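Fold this sequence, please.
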Amino acid sequence: MKMPMDATPFHSVQKRLFLVRMIRPGIFVVFIGFLLMGALSRSAEIDLPALPMAQYQYSKFFHELVNVPSICVTGKTVNEFQVQQCQAYWNTLLVRTFWFSFPFLCLMAFLFFGFDYVWLTYRRAAKKIETGKGAFVGVVTNPPDVPNDIYGWFHCFRLMSAQVQKGQQIQVYIPLNAPKPEPGSRLSVADVGKRFGKQRYVGVIYTPHVAVVSTEKR
């Protein structure tokens, strides 16, 4: 029997928790973007190391921003020379604005692709568990909790131990917004493939409505 996609905790990613968890790595990404910006913005005229060059670009951005020529704001140029000067100023400000924004663009890309990766994992897990394709039953061990790893932390999962066929134990990731299984609880488990260099399994508490094609791991 199939379940609608919103019937398991995998139907949606915990966006707020994900963003909170991305604060610290996000700061690191911004810093790396800052250094990368310094390295990429070097020129023949100004060839500084990455960090001093990035600091230079930021100082020049703020300098240009607070020293806008009045004639460029009003547009009341009186000759071609002033027109060219204003065009040069706006072009320079545009370039400096890009370099100023570069670290934050790196952060936006990191959050976008990171969230997309997590969302695809949830969607893959939901599809396997709700259709029963590749799903199997596991029993939560005692003690059930296992120290979480970077994969579980990144995906907003908790990590638990479960026993499957022939006494084999595996580690199963459970969404934090799902009820926490107790020792002895049956789980509907799905193999979501090798991720972060290791085979990963996700699961939810087994109910008759969750389609499971086998009680043994295949």
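The chain is about 50% helix and 20% strand. Confidence is low (pLDDT under 50) at residues 1-6, 213-218.
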